[in-house]
Amino acid sequence: MREPGMGFVLVGYDESPGSEQALRWAVEEARLRGLAVVVCHAWNWPYPLRAVSRALLAEVERVAAGVVEDGVRRVRALGGVPDVRPLLVKRPASAVLLEAAAEAELVVLGSRGVGGFEDLRVGSAAVQVPAHSPTPVIVVRPYDRDDDHDDDHDDDHVDGPPGTRPDEDARSQEGAGGGRIVVGVDGSPASLAAFGFAVREAALRDGVVEAVCGWWDPCAWQGHEEPFVDNARMRAEAESGFRDVVRRLAGCGPDVPVTATFEAERPPRMVVESAKGATLLVVGRSHRQAGVLVGPVLQAALAEVRCPVAVTPPPS
């Protein structure tokens, strides 16, 4: 699919509110990176074990083609990208996106599509694609107008890049406009790769990076300490190591402002709380353990964080 010298941002689109938000974000990423956009739509007959007429399948495919054409039209209307191409495939969405992701520079998709029940927060593709993709994936939640009237979350909501809210298409030509990019860093190879992505993204957006680390000591939180264990020293050493890693990493990448925040908190809760008011949260995906698709930090990020979440693959 990729032509020499022509990388692309792959975006999943099915006309759902989440995919419309993802489309706007993908266009912004493509503008910043000088890449083309590939609008991907997968369709699949819902009763694969039952024979149906060719005419019926042709009608379903015609509807699916209209969806991907609508996505291409929307990208062209937003403008600013060197090229836009459709990708229509008769297969399950996760499989199609993962196959195309192997050639993409970046994948963008909504947190849920048109299927599922009404209160579903994260769809199957929004979990399966970040869990397996060889390419960074950004999962974008649909904008909820009720967020603006929720007194408990006045500080949570951010617009994302210009044009990610339905009423901001006119602003989508204005550029990225900076923002705070939060990245979880625990010293693992996966988190170091995530930090590199966060810094590069901040450089594209003229933004800032906040590296965060949650240090969790169950004994200290239960109000007692284990015998012969210096909990305060353990915490001090952990914080010192974290800040040293962030300082060294910040000196190896693009010149962007970087801050480090270390707190005694469970890591999943730390990233969720830190992402409030952020433009983007970046989480590194570790190599999977048996029976676990994604770890607890990534689970919490996809389910609870309201800003877009970027998931970077583990280093080879």
TrEMBL record:
InterPro entries xref list: Rossmann-like_a/b/a_fold, Universal_stress_UspA, UspA
Biased composition (Basic and acidic residues): 155-172
All copies of domain UspA, residue ranges: 9-141, 180-313
Region listing for Disordered, in residue ranges: 137-180
Source domain of life: Bacteria
Biased amino acid composition, Acidic residues: 145-154
Record family assignment: Belongs to the universal stress protein A family.
PANTHER family membership: STRESS RESPONSE PROTEIN NHAX, UNIVERSAL STRESS PROTEIN UP12
Protein name stated in the entry: Universal stress protein
Lineage of source species: Bacteria, Bacillati, Actinomycetota, Actinomycetes, Streptosporangiales
